[in-house]
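>> Question from a student workshop board

For tomorrow's exercise we were told to take the sequence and the ligand below, predict the bound structure, and bring the output to class. My setup keeps failing. Could a helper post the expected result so I can at least see what it should look like? The ligand is nicotinamide-adenine-dinucleotide.
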Amino acid sequence: MNIIVTGGAGFIGSNFIFHMLNKHPDYRIVCLDKLTYAGNLSTLAPVMDHPCFRFVKADICDREAVYKLFEEEHPDMVVNFAAESHVDRSIENPEVFLRTNILGTQVMMDACRKYGIKRYHQVSTDEVYGDLPLDRPDLMFTEETPIHTSSPYSAAKASADLMVQAYHRTFGLPVTISRCSNNYGPYHFPEKLIPLMIANALNDKPLPVYGTGENVRDWLYVEDHCKAIDLILHKGRVGEVYNIGGHNEMKNIDIVKIICKALNKPESLITYVTDRKGHDMRYAIDPTKIHTELGWLPETKFVDGIQKTIQWYLDNKEWWEEIINGEYQNYYKKMYGNR
Ligand code: NAD
Ligand code: DAU
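>> Workshop helper replied:
Here is what the output should look like for this input. Compare the format with yours to find the bug.
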Protein backbone atom coordinates (compact mmCIF):
# COMPACT_ATOMS: atom_id res chain seq x y z
CA MET A 1 0.00 0.00 0.00
CA ASN A 2 1.35 3.41 -1.01
CA ILE A 3 -0.30 6.37 0.76
CA ILE A 4 0.16 10.08 0.08
CA VAL A 5 -0.35 12.04 3.30
CA THR A 6 -0.71 15.77 2.73
CA GLY A 7 0.03 18.20 5.57
CA GLY A 8 2.19 15.57 7.28
CA ALA A 9 4.63 18.13 8.68
CA GLY A 10 1.84 19.59 10.84
CA PHE A 11 0.38 18.47 14.14
CA ILE A 12 -2.05 15.66 13.32
CA GLY A 13 -0.48 14.65 10.00
CA SER A 14 2.90 13.97 11.62
CA ASN A 15 1.32 11.93 14.40
CA PHE A 16 -0.59 10.00 11.70
CA ILE A 17 2.63 9.26 9.79
CA PHE A 18 4.32 7.95 12.96
CA HIS A 19 1.28 5.79 13.67
CA MET A 20 1.09 4.35 10.12
CA LEU A 21 4.82 3.57 9.80
CA ASN A 22 4.68 1.82 13.15
CA LYS A 23 1.42 -0.06 12.63
CA HIS A 24 1.90 -1.01 8.96
CA PRO A 25 5.63 -1.68 8.42
CA ASP A 26 4.99 -2.82 4.82
CA TYR A 27 3.30 0.43 3.76
CA ARG A 28 5.02 3.28 1.93
CA ILE A 29 4.10 6.74 3.21
CA VAL A 30 4.77 9.81 1.07
CA CYS A 31 4.33 13.14 2.82
CA LEU A 32 3.43 16.11 0.64
CA ASP A 33 3.66 19.39 2.54
CA LYS A 34 4.21 23.04 1.61
CA LEU A 35 5.94 23.76 4.93
CA THR A 36 3.90 26.83 5.78
CA TYR A 37 4.46 28.49 9.16
CA ALA A 38 2.62 25.48 10.64
CA GLY A 39 4.74 22.81 8.97
CA ASN A 40 7.99 21.83 10.56
CA LEU A 41 10.56 19.46 9.08
CA SER A 42 12.16 18.89 12.47
CA THR A 43 8.89 17.24 13.49
CA LEU A 44 9.48 14.56 10.86
CA ALA A 45 13.17 14.08 11.76
CA PRO A 46 12.49 10.72 13.49
CA VAL A 47 11.26 9.19 10.20
CA MET A 48 13.24 11.12 7.56
CA ASP A 49 15.61 8.18 7.01
CA HIS A 50 12.93 5.51 7.30
CA PRO A 51 13.11 3.29 4.19
CA CYS A 52 9.32 3.40 3.73
CA PHE A 53 9.05 7.19 4.00
CA ARG A 54 9.50 10.02 1.49
CA PHE A 55 9.05 13.75 2.04
CA VAL A 56 8.13 16.07 -0.83
CA LYS A 57 7.87 19.83 -0.39
CA ALA A 58 4.95 21.03 -2.52
CA ASP A 59 1.73 22.99 -2.41
CA ILE A 60 -1.50 20.97 -2.77
CA CYS A 61 -2.77 23.81 -5.01
CA ASP A 62 0.14 23.26 -7.44
CA ARG A 63 -1.51 20.98 -10.00
CA GLU A 64 1.70 20.29 -11.91
CA ALA A 65 3.63 19.27 -8.79
CA VAL A 66 0.76 17.12 -7.54
CA TYR A 67 0.31 15.32 -10.88
CA LYS A 68 4.07 14.74 -11.10
CA LEU A 69 4.02 13.13 -7.67
CA PHE A 70 1.12 10.86 -8.67
CA GLU A 71 3.05 9.81 -11.79
CA GLU A 72 6.07 8.95 -9.67
CA GLU A 73 4.29 7.25 -6.80
CA HIS A 74 1.07 5.66 -8.15
CA PRO A 75 -0.58 6.01 -4.72
CA ASP A 76 -3.31 3.63 -3.57
CA MET A 77 -4.72 6.15 -1.12
CA VAL A 78 -4.58 9.85 -0.28
CA VAL A 79 -5.21 11.24 3.18
CA ASN A 80 -5.66 15.00 2.98
CA PHE A 81 -4.65 16.76 6.20
CA ALA A 82 -3.16 19.81 4.47
CA ALA A 83 -5.06 22.93 5.47
CA GLU A 84 -4.87 26.31 7.05
CA SER A 85 -6.14 25.25 10.45
CA HIS A 86 -6.29 28.20 12.85
CA VAL A 87 -9.64 29.97 13.32
CA ASP A 88 -8.07 33.24 14.56
CA ARG A 89 -5.86 33.49 11.47
CA SER A 90 -8.91 32.88 9.25
CA ILE A 91 -10.56 35.91 10.83
CA GLU A 92 -7.49 38.04 10.02
CA ASN A 93 -6.95 36.74 6.48
CA PRO A 94 -9.62 34.44 5.00
CA GLU A 95 -8.25 34.18 1.46
CA VAL A 96 -5.47 31.65 1.98
CA PHE A 97 -8.03 29.44 3.77
CA LEU A 98 -10.22 29.34 0.67
CA ARG A 99 -7.24 28.67 -1.56
CA THR A 100 -5.67 25.81 0.39
CA ASN A 101 -8.68 24.27 2.05
CA ILE A 102 -11.03 24.32 -0.97
CA LEU A 103 -8.98 24.64 -4.15
CA GLY A 104 -6.18 22.45 -2.79
CA THR A 105 -8.72 19.74 -2.01
CA GLN A 106 -10.02 19.98 -5.57
CA VAL A 107 -6.53 19.60 -7.06
CA MET A 108 -5.86 16.51 -4.91
CA MET A 109 -9.17 14.96 -6.00
CA ASP A 110 -8.54 15.81 -9.67
CA ALA A 111 -5.25 13.95 -9.43
CA CYS A 112 -7.08 10.99 -7.87
CA ARG A 113 -9.58 10.99 -10.74
CA LYS A 114 -6.89 11.29 -13.41
CA TYR A 115 -4.56 8.59 -12.10
CA GLY A 116 -7.05 6.40 -10.21
CA ILE A 117 -7.19 5.76 -6.47
CA LYS A 118 -8.55 3.16 -4.07
CA ARG A 119 -9.47 5.78 -1.48
CA TYR A 120 -9.41 9.55 -1.05
CA HIS A 121 -9.85 10.49 2.60
CA GLN A 122 -10.71 14.04 3.62
CA VAL A 123 -9.75 15.05 7.16
CA SER A 124 -12.52 17.42 8.13
CA THR A 125 -13.65 18.92 11.43
CA ASP A 126 -16.61 19.10 13.79
CA GLU A 127 -16.58 22.88 13.22
CA VAL A 128 -18.53 22.36 9.99
CA TYR A 129 -21.61 21.75 12.16
CA GLY A 130 -21.39 25.19 13.81
CA ASP A 131 -21.91 25.25 17.56
CA LEU A 132 -24.30 24.03 20.25
CA PRO A 133 -25.87 25.89 23.18
CA LEU A 134 -24.38 25.47 26.65
CA ASP A 135 -27.79 24.84 28.21
CA ARG A 136 -28.64 21.79 26.05
CA PRO A 137 -26.12 19.12 27.07
CA ASP A 138 -28.41 16.54 25.42
CA LEU A 139 -27.57 17.94 21.95
CA MET A 140 -24.56 16.56 20.05
CA PHE A 141 -23.31 16.60 16.46
CA THR A 142 -24.25 13.50 14.48
CA GLU A 143 -23.35 12.91 10.83
CA GLU A 144 -26.89 14.10 9.98
CA THR A 145 -26.49 17.49 11.70
CA PRO A 146 -26.81 20.20 9.04
CA ILE A 147 -23.67 22.07 8.00
CA HIS A 148 -23.85 25.51 9.63
CA THR A 149 -20.50 27.27 9.80
CA SER A 150 -19.28 30.26 11.81
CA SER A 151 -15.71 31.23 10.81
CA PRO A 152 -13.96 31.56 7.45
CA TYR A 153 -11.95 28.49 8.53
CA SER A 154 -15.00 26.31 9.12
CA ALA A 155 -16.76 27.66 6.03
CA ALA A 156 -13.74 26.70 3.91
CA LYS A 157 -13.57 23.22 5.48
CA ALA A 158 -17.32 22.74 4.91
CA SER A 159 -16.96 23.86 1.28
CA ALA A 160 -14.24 21.25 0.81
CA ASP A 161 -16.51 18.57 2.31
CA LEU A 162 -19.24 19.49 -0.16
CA MET A 163 -16.76 19.23 -3.04
CA VAL A 164 -15.62 15.81 -1.79
CA GLN A 165 -19.24 14.63 -1.72
CA ALA A 166 -19.80 16.12 -5.17
CA TYR A 167 -16.78 14.25 -6.60
CA HIS A 168 -18.15 11.04 -5.13
CA ARG A 169 -21.65 11.51 -6.50
CA THR A 170 -20.69 12.99 -9.89
CA PHE A 171 -17.47 11.14 -10.71
CA GLY A 172 -17.73 8.08 -8.47
CA LEU A 173 -14.52 8.99 -6.61
CA PRO A 174 -14.13 6.52 -3.69
CA VAL A 175 -14.09 9.00 -0.82
CA THR A 176 -14.52 9.02 2.94
CA ILE A 177 -14.72 12.04 5.26
CA SER A 178 -13.96 12.20 8.97
CA ARG A 179 -15.06 15.05 11.24
CA CYS A 180 -13.12 15.10 14.46
CA SER A 181 -13.33 17.23 17.59
CA ASN A 182 -10.40 19.20 19.09
CA ASN A 183 -7.15 17.24 19.22
CA TYR A 184 -4.31 17.66 21.71
CA GLY A 185 -0.92 15.99 22.09
CA PRO A 186 2.72 16.22 20.92
CA TYR A 187 3.74 18.60 18.09
CA HIS A 188 0.66 20.83 18.51
CA PHE A 189 1.57 24.28 17.18
CA PRO A 190 1.76 26.81 20.05
CA GLU A 191 -0.87 29.14 18.57
CA LYS A 192 -3.60 26.73 19.74
CA LEU A 193 -5.13 26.79 23.23
CA ILE A 194 -3.37 23.91 25.03
CA PRO A 195 0.22 24.34 23.75
CA LEU A 196 -0.06 28.14 23.97
CA MET A 197 -1.09 27.94 27.61
CA ILE A 198 1.66 25.41 28.42
CA ALA A 199 4.34 27.54 26.71
CA ASN A 200 3.14 30.80 28.32
CA ALA A 201 2.83 29.23 31.76
CA LEU A 202 6.35 27.81 31.53
CA ASN A 203 7.57 31.31 30.64
CA ASP A 204 5.48 32.92 33.43
CA LYS A 205 3.59 34.93 30.82
CA PRO A 206 -0.12 35.90 30.99
CA LEU A 207 -2.57 33.16 29.94
CA PRO A 208 -5.01 34.90 27.55
CA VAL A 209 -8.49 33.38 27.93
CA TYR A 210 -11.01 34.64 25.37
CA GLY A 211 -14.29 36.08 26.72
CA THR A 212 -15.44 34.36 29.89
CA GLY A 213 -13.64 31.07 29.29
CA GLU A 214 -16.99 29.23 29.43
CA ASN A 215 -16.74 27.95 25.83
CA VAL A 216 -16.68 24.17 25.63
CA ARG A 217 -14.52 21.97 23.39
CA ASP A 218 -14.59 18.16 23.11
CA TRP A 219 -10.94 17.07 23.48
CA LEU A 220 -9.43 13.94 21.94
CA TYR A 221 -5.84 12.69 22.25
CA VAL A 222 -4.27 12.91 18.79
CA GLU A 223 -3.27 9.23 18.65
CA ASP A 224 -6.92 8.22 19.01
CA HIS A 225 -7.79 10.41 16.01
CA CYS A 226 -4.99 8.76 13.97
CA LYS A 227 -6.22 5.28 14.87
CA ALA A 228 -9.75 6.25 13.83
CA ILE A 229 -8.57 7.45 10.39
CA ASP A 230 -6.55 4.24 9.95
CA LEU A 231 -9.74 2.24 10.66
CA ILE A 232 -11.83 4.32 8.26
CA LEU A 233 -9.25 3.79 5.49
CA HIS A 234 -9.38 0.03 5.92
CA LYS A 235 -12.96 -0.64 7.02
CA GLY A 236 -14.98 2.53 6.41
CA ARG A 237 -17.70 2.53 3.78
CA VAL A 238 -17.03 4.57 0.64
CA GLY A 239 -19.10 7.76 0.41
CA GLU A 240 -19.63 7.94 4.17
CA VAL A 241 -18.93 10.61 6.79
CA TYR A 242 -17.64 9.48 10.21
CA ASN A 243 -17.67 11.72 13.28
CA ILE A 244 -14.76 11.18 15.69
CA GLY A 245 -14.85 12.25 19.33
CA GLY A 246 -14.57 10.80 22.80
CA HIS A 247 -17.27 12.48 24.93
CA ASN A 248 -14.75 14.70 26.67
CA GLU A 249 -16.33 18.14 26.88
CA MET A 250 -14.44 20.72 28.89
CA LYS A 251 -14.64 24.47 29.46
CA ASN A 252 -11.59 26.42 28.29
CA ILE A 253 -11.09 27.95 31.71
CA ASP A 254 -10.97 24.51 33.35
CA ILE A 255 -8.29 23.36 30.89
CA VAL A 256 -6.18 26.42 31.68
CA LYS A 257 -6.54 25.81 35.41
CA ILE A 258 -5.49 22.16 34.96
CA ILE A 259 -2.36 23.32 33.12
CA CYS A 260 -1.54 25.86 35.88
CA LYS A 261 -1.90 23.17 38.53
CA ALA A 262 0.18 20.60 36.65
CA LEU A 263 3.00 23.11 36.15
CA ASN A 264 2.70 24.53 39.64
CA LYS A 265 1.99 28.02 38.30
CA PRO A 266 -0.41 30.53 39.93
CA GLU A 267 -3.90 31.06 38.47
CA SER A 268 -3.17 34.78 38.73
CA LEU A 269 -1.44 34.36 35.33
CA ILE A 270 -4.92 33.91 33.80
CA THR A 271 -5.94 37.08 31.92
CA TYR A 272 -9.37 37.46 30.35
CA VAL A 273 -9.05 39.11 26.93
CA THR A 274 -11.43 40.30 24.20
CA ASP A 275 -13.45 37.42 22.80
CA ARG A 276 -12.86 35.82 19.38
CA LYS A 277 -15.28 37.22 16.77
CA GLY A 278 -18.13 34.77 16.12
CA HIS A 279 -16.74 32.50 18.86
CA ASP A 280 -18.42 29.06 18.79
CA MET A 281 -19.88 28.23 22.20
CA ARG A 282 -19.80 24.46 22.41
CA TYR A 283 -18.75 21.47 20.32
CA ALA A 284 -19.80 17.91 21.17
CA ILE A 285 -19.44 14.87 18.94
CA ASP A 286 -21.76 11.87 18.94
CA PRO A 287 -19.37 9.05 17.91
CA THR A 288 -22.04 6.31 17.78
CA LYS A 289 -21.56 5.59 14.07
CA ILE A 290 -17.80 4.96 14.14
CA HIS A 291 -18.20 2.94 17.32
CA THR A 292 -21.00 0.68 16.12
CA GLU A 293 -19.80 0.30 12.51
CA LEU A 294 -16.03 0.15 12.98
CA GLY A 295 -15.61 -0.66 16.67
CA TRP A 296 -13.58 2.50 17.37
CA LEU A 297 -13.34 3.83 20.91
CA PRO A 298 -10.88 6.37 22.32
CA GLU A 299 -8.13 4.76 24.38
CA THR A 300 -6.53 7.72 26.17
CA LYS A 301 -8.42 9.37 29.03
CA PHE A 302 -8.02 13.15 29.30
CA VAL A 303 -6.31 12.96 32.73
CA ASP A 304 -3.60 10.78 31.22
CA GLY A 305 -3.44 12.49 27.81
CA ILE A 306 -2.97 15.99 29.25
CA GLN A 307 -0.26 14.73 31.60
CA LYS A 308 1.58 13.05 28.68
CA THR A 309 1.17 16.21 26.60
CA ILE A 310 2.52 18.52 29.30
CA GLN A 311 5.45 16.15 29.84
CA TRP A 312 6.14 16.17 26.09
CA TYR A 313 6.33 19.99 26.07
CA LEU A 314 8.66 19.85 29.09
CA ASP A 315 10.89 17.29 27.38
CA ASN A 316 10.88 18.98 23.96
CA LYS A 317 11.43 22.63 24.78
CA GLU A 318 13.76 23.14 21.82
CA TRP A 319 10.92 22.16 19.43
CA TRP A 320 8.49 24.87 20.60
CA GLU A 321 11.06 27.44 21.73
CA GLU A 322 12.44 27.58 18.22
CA ILE A 323 8.91 28.32 16.96
CA ILE A 324 7.99 30.96 19.50
CA ASN A 325 11.33 32.74 19.10
CA GLY A 326 10.80 33.20 15.36
CA GLU A 327 8.07 34.83 13.21
CA TYR A 328 5.57 33.72 15.88
CA GLN A 329 6.57 36.79 17.93
CA ASN A 330 5.04 39.10 15.32
CA TYR A 331 1.91 36.95 15.22
CA TYR A 332 1.66 37.04 19.01
CA LYS A 333 2.06 40.81 19.17
CA LYS A 334 -0.57 41.32 16.49
CA MET A 335 -3.14 38.95 18.01
CA TYR A 336 -2.60 39.58 21.72
CA GLY A 337 -0.75 42.92 21.89
CA ASN A 338 -3.77 45.17 22.42
CA ARG A 339 -6.38 42.61 23.23
P1 NAD B 1 -1.57 22.18 11.26
O1 NAD B 1 -1.85 23.61 11.00
O2 NAD B 1 -0.77 21.79 12.46
O3 NAD B 1 -0.83 21.55 9.99
C1 NAD B 1 -1.20 21.83 8.68
C2 NAD B 1 -0.11 21.29 7.76
O4 NAD B 1 -0.55 21.51 6.40
C3 NAD B 1 1.24 22.00 7.90
O5 NAD B 1 2.28 21.05 7.88
C4 NAD B 1 1.32 22.90 6.68
O6 NAD B 1 2.64 23.15 6.23
C5 NAD B 1 0.51 22.08 5.67
N1 NAD B 1 -0.05 22.92 4.60
C6 NAD B 1 -0.77 24.06 4.73
N2 NAD B 1 -1.10 24.54 3.54
C7 NAD B 1 -0.61 23.69 2.60
C8 NAD B 1 -0.64 23.63 1.20
N3 NAD B 1 -1.23 24.59 0.47
N4 NAD B 1 -0.04 22.59 0.57
C9 NAD B 1 0.59 21.61 1.29
N5 NAD B 1 0.66 21.63 2.63
C10 NAD B 1 0.06 22.64 3.29
O7 NAD B 1 -2.99 21.47 11.26
P2 NAD B 1 -3.55 20.26 12.16
O8 NAD B 1 -4.06 20.80 13.43
O9 NAD B 1 -2.57 19.15 12.15
O10 NAD B 1 -4.83 19.84 11.28
C11 NAD B 1 -4.70 18.93 10.21
C12 NAD B 1 -6.06 18.72 9.58
O11 NAD B 1 -6.97 18.23 10.55
C13 NAD B 1 -6.67 20.00 9.02
O12 NAD B 1 -7.31 19.67 7.81
C14 NAD B 1 -7.69 20.40 10.08
O13 NAD B 1 -8.76 21.09 9.48
C15 NAD B 1 -8.12 19.05 10.60
N6 NAD B 1 -8.59 19.00 12.01
C16 NAD B 1 -7.82 19.53 13.01
C17 NAD B 1 -8.24 19.39 14.33
C18 NAD B 1 -7.41 19.93 15.49
O14 NAD B 1 -7.87 19.90 16.61
N7 NAD B 1 -6.19 20.39 15.26
C19 NAD B 1 -9.46 18.75 14.62
C20 NAD B 1 -10.23 18.24 13.56
C21 NAD B 1 -9.77 18.37 12.26
O1 DAU C 1 -12.91 21.36 16.71
C1 DAU C 1 -11.88 21.08 15.84
C2 DAU C 1 -11.06 22.32 15.59
O2 DAU C 1 -10.31 22.56 16.79
C3 DAU C 1 -10.13 22.20 14.40
O3 DAU C 1 -10.91 22.07 13.23
C4 DAU C 1 -9.21 23.42 14.28
O4 DAU C 1 -8.27 23.25 13.23
C5 DAU C 1 -8.46 23.59 15.58
O5 DAU C 1 -7.64 24.74 15.54
C6 DAU C 1 -9.44 23.68 16.77
O6 DAU C 1 -10.21 24.91 16.69
P1 DAU C 1 -10.54 25.78 18.01
O7 DAU C 1 -10.83 27.16 17.59
O8 DAU C 1 -11.53 25.06 18.87
O9 DAU C 1 -9.10 25.65 18.75
P2 DAU C 1 -8.18 26.73 19.51
O10 DAU C 1 -7.09 25.96 20.17
O11 DAU C 1 -7.81 27.87 18.63
O12 DAU C 1 -9.15 27.29 20.63
C7 DAU C 1 -9.77 26.42 21.57
C8 DAU C 1 -10.65 27.28 22.47
O13 DAU C 1 -9.80 28.10 23.28
C9 DAU C 1 -11.56 28.23 21.73
O14 DAU C 1 -12.79 28.33 22.42
C10 DAU C 1 -10.82 29.57 21.77
C11 DAU C 1 -10.08 29.50 23.09
N1 DAU C 1 -8.77 30.21 23.15
C12 DAU C 1 -7.85 29.94 22.18
C13 DAU C 1 -6.63 30.58 22.19
C14 DAU C 1 -5.62 30.30 21.10
C15 DAU C 1 -8.50 31.08 24.18
O15 DAU C 1 -9.33 31.30 25.07
N2 DAU C 1 -7.29 31.71 24.19
C16 DAU C 1 -6.34 31.52 23.23
O16 DAU C 1 -5.25 32.16 23.29
